[in-house]
Design goal:
470 residues; alpha/beta; TIM Barrel
Length: 470
């Protein structure tokens, strides 16, 4: 029998995740042991009475998946021509900082991009906006985001783009966004952003000591004092706009996690701000990434407090900002399990979006990419050019990136919870099978612990409703 599932054990209870239906079932200990015994065998041997009691109710059926292909493939051309959610303009590759783990860093191992003197021309920006507005008629909203380098080095171009987009966007409101290091965000510039309802994300790594370690000007001086001076002025003069500013922190092994948490909790300027974070990866840092035990223990404790909150035993306002978004992710996974759905004969692992639909990134040369995170040096990830249009074949290849590992995906129990986009399959500027496979174990482990966590939360009274069987 070719049945794909994953057994899950908590302290006192037993479960099985059924890939075919994307459901978790509560089972007894004997059934758990029988399923565990056969779990990793390609040809499973079950007593007919044992397996029939599941299969008669539609669970643990023979694997139906034969073809790894995204069901949206046949609609991709229509979608990218009518449903573009966000345009991201790389208005410059110049930057006034030299952050060591930046995607442009020459100190780290990053090969995606390098700093250059290249700027986007007004003509190219207008063509990109025209392309976006003409291919987003079915999208619910329109968002144009400015990216760099440091986008505020091209303030006049940004102002032109805002004016141009407003004039050209007929019948729909267009919103604007920007990712900036904050060093050039003077009060006058902030007024312009506020007047045009910009969503602003600023990179800030904590206190002066933590931030200045990696986020430095080209001359080697730290950027913290400049950023904080700008933020204080904005907070005083434009308090309503300041409340809309979000911050992103990159956590790396050399940072003191407790110091960073304390800073964002107690600093009078940013204590009430919305905070996101990312963990630096090996490609970013230029070396092996090994977080210290103190870092991991502190993170685990914060996560423990989050779980207490989800069980109504800890105040939401007392949670650390770094774990708040985790609650959303847990809830989404639970909702996915509650929705369920049969895998069918043809399907594709979750992970890749439709390239050119959710986001489309236009670089300074007019080349088109699925988003700002992919490598501009990987020809397979370049999905077109502003002059020649989108390459539907490349879009479909990225949308079906799971074909690189088709045999493994067909057998993988974590198929519905795979978190790998095309960027995880890139190595040395080529999308390859080996690169994708190197992330599979981590993806499966992440999926397993998420599912087990949901089971435990349910056991302790969280307002989830796991499918109960037997």
């Amino acid at each position: 029998m070719n049945i794909i599932y994953k057994t899950i054990k908590t302290k006192d209870r037993y479960y099985v995740y059924d890939r075919n239906t994307n459901r978790i079932l509560a089972i007894n200990e004997n059934d758990y042991n029988d399923l565990l015994d056969q779990e990793n065998k390609s040809d499973k041997l079950f007593d007919s009475f044992f397996i029939n009691k599941f299969q008669d109710k539609g669970f643990l059926l023979e694997n139906q998946l034969e073809i790894v292909e995204n069901p949206l493939t046949k609609y991709s051309e229509h979608i990218v021509k009518h449903y573009k959610e966000q345009l991201i303009l790389q208005v410059t590759q110049r930057c006034n900082l030299r952050c060591e783990y930046c995607i442009y860093s020459e100190k780290g191992a990053y090969h995606n991009r390098k700093h250059s003197d290249c700027d986007m021309s007004i003509e190219l920006a207008e063509k990109a906006i025209d392309m976006y507005l003409n291919t987003s008629d079915e999208a619910p909203d329109r968002v144009i985001s400015f990216y760099g380098g440091e986008p505020l080095l091209r303030l006049e171009l940004i102002k032109h783009c805002v004016k141009y987009a407003k004039e050209k966007s007929i019948g729909k409101r267009v919103r604007f966004a920007m990712t900036t290091n904050g060093t050039l965000l003077t009060l006058n510039i902030a007024r312009f952003l506020a007047d045009n309802n910009f969503e602003v994300l600023i990179s800030l790594d904590g206190s002066r000591e933590e931030h200045n370690t990696y986020r430095k000007f080209a001359n080697g001086e730290g950027s913290f004092d400049t950023i904080m001076s700008n933020l204080r002025n904005i907070r005083i003069e434009l308090p309503f706009f300041f409340k809309t500013i979000h911050f992103n922190t990159v956590l790396n092994p050399n940072h003191n996690y407790e110091n960073i948490k304390e800073y964002f909790h107690n600093n009078e300027v940013v204590a009430d701000a919305t905070l996101m974070h990312t963990l630096v990866e090996e490609n970013d840092f230029g070396t092996n990434v090994n977080f210290k035990k103190e870092f991991m223990r502190s993170r685990e404790y914060d996560h423990f407090l989050l779980l207490l909150h989800m069980l109504d035993n800890y105040s939401f306002h007392s949670l650390d900002k770094f774990v708040i978004l985790r609650k959303i992710l847990i809830s989404r996974k639970h909702e996915q399990l509650m929705t369920g759905g049969y895998i069918g004969r043809m399907n594709h692992p979750s992970g890749p979006c439709i390239p050119g639909s959710r986001r489309i990134f236009v670089n300074v040369r007019g080349d088109l990419y699925p988003c700002e995170k992919v490598s501009e040096n990987c020809e397979q990830e370049r999905i077109g050019n502003i002059e020649t249009g989108l390459d539907i074949e490349k879009i479909n290849n990225i949308l079906n990136i799971g074909k690189l590992t088709e045999n493994e995906c067909k057998k993988c129990w974590a198929f519905h919870f795979c978190n790998m986009c095309c960027n995880k399959a890139e190595r040395d500027n080529v999308l390859c099978r080996e690169a994708r496979l190197s992330h599979c174990q981590n993806a499966r482990e992440s999926a397993y612990y998420d599912l087990r966590e949901i089971c435990v939360l349910k056991e302790f009274g969280c307002k989830f409703q796991l499918e109960m069987f037997m």
